[in-house]
Amino acid sequence: MTTSVFRMPLRLLTASVLCALANASHAAVYVQCPGDTNGDAVIDNPDPNHPRAVCQHLTAGDGFIRMGDDAGKLQYTFGFHDVTGVPPDQVMDTGLLAANFPAPTISLKEGDEFYLSLTNVAMAIRPDLADPHSVHFHGFPNASAVFDGMPEGSIAINQGETLTYYYNIVEPGTFIYHCHVEATEHMQMGMLGNLYVHPKQDGTSKTYDGKTYTKFAYNDGDGSTGYDVEYPLQLGSFDPVFHDLHQSIQPLPFANMKDTYAMINGRGYPDTVNPSPLPTPIDPESGQSANNGTQSQKVSSLVTASAGQRVLLRISNLNITNFYTVTVLGLPMKVVGTGAHILRGPTGKNLYYDTSSVTLGGGEAVDVLIDTRGITPGTYFLYTTNLNYLSNNEEDYGGMMTEIVIN
């Protein structure tokens, strides 16, 4: 990492600086969660008036991730971090320099009452910034605009403050979430995450095409969206010049943005097939953790199934610069949902379709089923047909690709 007069190097970001940032706003961390007795967003004593309450607490701040090239380039990011279960007086310390990419996965059930608290812990690397943050539950029909996360019509959270969003989960499907404050900048910097809702039909038994399922993508009524295993795969990419200039406090080249690190769930191949969280990124100057000891890339993209199982891929794209097309060599793909809606006509007729590839623009999501009955066990590749994105910046044989392993 190059030291700049315009930037505080990580080796100078002392514990006293972190403590000063953290101690400024401990008292502002206030979580709303029915049945939570100590403010850590964990339900200790269920409230009979809210039997389906689900609570989660995220922080918004900055951090670093490691890219997939051989050098493991350190990339400055913004992001969210899950502090559910952390006492309120420890949230600021825990959330500093702990940005995850992608954001922590949110998985819900239709009928839940979701209380999502967001605390803005400020930017440790860019203390000159006073950016507010928000959560936008993309594609969800909010009952009130105040919880939409778009600052023009709702609320954004300033540094050192906490807001609890409330969502009455009325629709199943594959959604996505992101910060909507200065959206182009904050989304390019990494404030993006997987979010999906399981249908009420889950837990019932329905037989379709000779096989019985208890898990479904939607309330289909006939078992046609049944599956055995599911995986969220979020497509995205970074412009390293934009990220480096941001860290160096230089003018940001919005008009010239060009993403050259293409990823799935925040990793480029071969990191996509590592089933474990990636190690905490290391600052090459100090040789110490750049992320305050936090693992920032926790979501694997490796897909595994047993022969004969049906796989649900929840594929989304929150990229702000590109459309992406992805394909799976040798495996049949059936699209059963788009934009968090089942593919059905007004009379209830299934409009599912078989395909060899799907194309997604920013903010789009599709539900793809892969039936492995009759498929030869082995390793199959899911990758982008935009071949220039099968690279980690200047290094080929990487980028937007992962493996589907049929055992």
State the helical fraction: under 10%
CATH level-4 homologous superfamily = Cupredoxins -  blue copper proteins
- Computed Rg: 21 Å
Distance between the termini: 42 Å
Global mean pLDDT = 92
Written overview of the protein:
By secondary structure, the protein is mostly beta strands. It has one domain: Immunoglobulin-like, CATH 2.60.40. It contains four helices and 24 strands. The protein has helices at residues 15-23, 91-95, 183-188, 240-247; strands at residues 53-66, 74-82, 103-109, 113-122, 136-138, 162-168, 173-178, 192-198, 206-208, 211-213, 229-238, 261-264, 303-305, 310-317, 324-328, 333-338, 341-342, 353-355, 357-360, 364-371, 378-384, 391-392, 395-396, 401-406. Strands 11, 12, 14, 16, 17, 18 and 20 form a seven-stranded mixed beta sheet that branches. Strand 16 (333-338) and strand 17 form a beta hairpin. The two termini are 42 Å apart. Residues 1-27 have low confidence and may be disordered.
Defining key terms:
single chain; 407 residues; mainly beta; Immunoglobulin-like; five-stranded mixed β-sheet; 7% helix; 34% strand
Offer a concise description of the structure.
The chain is built from four helices and 24 strands. The chain has 407 residues and is mainly β.
Write the topology of this structure:
Blueprint: H1 15-23, E1 53-66, E2 74-82, H2 91-95, E3 103-109, E4 113-122, E5 136-138, E6 162-168, E7 173-178, H3 183-188, E8 192-198, E9 206-208, E10 211-213, E11 229-238, H4 240-247, E12 261-264, E13 303-305, E14 310-317, E15 324-328, E16 333-338, E17 341-342, E18 353-355, E19 357-360, E20 364-371, E21 378-384, E22 391-392, E23 395-396, E24 401-406
Parallel strand pairs: 1-4, 3-8, 11-14, 13-24
Antiparallel strand pairs: 1-2, 4-6, 5-7, 7-8, 9-10, 11-12, 14-20, 15-19, 15-21, 16-17, 16-18, 16-20, 21-24, 22-23
